[in-house]
Each structure stands twice: as structure tokens, then as C-alpha cells.
Design a protein that fits this description.
Distance between the termini: 58 Å
Strand order of the largest sheet: 1-2-3-4
Number of helices: 5
Bound molecules: zinc ion
Shape: flat
Length: 140
């Protein structure tokens, strides 16, 4: 997978320090993240959200000498893919054969967004305004 290879490239400069079994502090300069291989989480949240181990997790896995494939979420498995597409999406006829129900649907009413975006702040005492020319308030 390309995403996993990309994270592997990013992990090159990071260093993992084992804190406990399956728990690492991964650092690069002043940056640092906590990786838990047991919980499959990283404090950068990338792994937690995507299910794909981030660069920091890759460093911890390299340190622990484990395979990245063991930590990818099941969602990315072939089994889950087949299950997701196991159902048939039934085809439908063309618009010419659709039943007419007599209801017309119109597009939403157009609203001029320029009015909503207009600068509406009143100048405070001591501030001048050139609102008529440029709409800005300045501290002069
Ligand atoms: Zn991370």
C-alpha cells in the first residue's frame, strides 16, 4: 500500500524509546508522540482516525521488530472489502420510465453572500473609518 510506504519514508528520522511493553515515546528534535502498539494509538491521532499506522507508530514497530501488517485496521482487509461489496446494487430504469408523481422540486432560493460578508464593526473612539472606499477600519 502506498500510504504505508509513505509513512515508512517519513519515519526515517524519528527515534523510539521504549517506555513499557508496547508503549513508546517517539521523538524527533523537539517533537514527540506517545505510541501504544497494544491499543493501536498514537498521540498525533492519525492512526486512531485512519486505522493505518502513522510514521511514529512505524518507528515503534521497527523498534519492537513487528510487522506493520499486524497493526492495520481490519477495515482494510480483503475480507472486509468483499463483505462491503457482497450486496447487489439493483439497477433502475431510465428517467423516461419513472412514475410521474406531480411534485416539482425547485432549487434553493439564492442568497447574496456579499451582504453577509460585509464588514460591520463600528470604529471605536480614536479609530478612523474609510468604510465608503474600502470598508476597512484603521487605527490612525
Ligand atoms: Zn503518530
Amino acid at each position: 500500500m502506498k500510504k504505508l510506504e509513505k509513512e515508512k519514508d517519513k519515519s526515517r528520522w524519528w527515534q523510539a524509546i521504549r517506555a513499557a511493553a508496547g508503549k513508546y515515546s517517539v521523538k524527533h528534535g523537539v517533537q514527540g508522540f506517545v505510541v501504544s502498539l497494544l491499543d493501536k494509538t498514537c498521540s498525533c491521532k492519525t492512526w486512531n482516525l485512519s486505522g493505518l499506522p502513522c510514521a511514529h507508530a512505524r518507528v515503534a514497530m521497527r523498534e519492537q521488530r513487528t510487522k506493520v501488517e499486524d497493526y492495520v485496521h481490519d477495515y482494510y482487509s480483503i475480507e472486509k472489502y468483499k463483505k462491503a461489496y457482497a450486496y447487489t446494487i439493483n439497477p433502475i430504469n431510465g428517467r423516461n420510465l419513472w412514475e410521474q408523481v406531480g411534485v416539482q422540486i425547485h432549487p434553493p432560493e439564492f442568497k447574496d453572500t456579499k451582504k453577509n460578508l460585509a464588514f460591520k464593526r463600528r470604529p471605536e473612539e480614536g479609530e478612523s473609518s474609510c468604510r465608503k472606499r474600502c470598508g476597512m477600519v484603521s487605527n490612525v
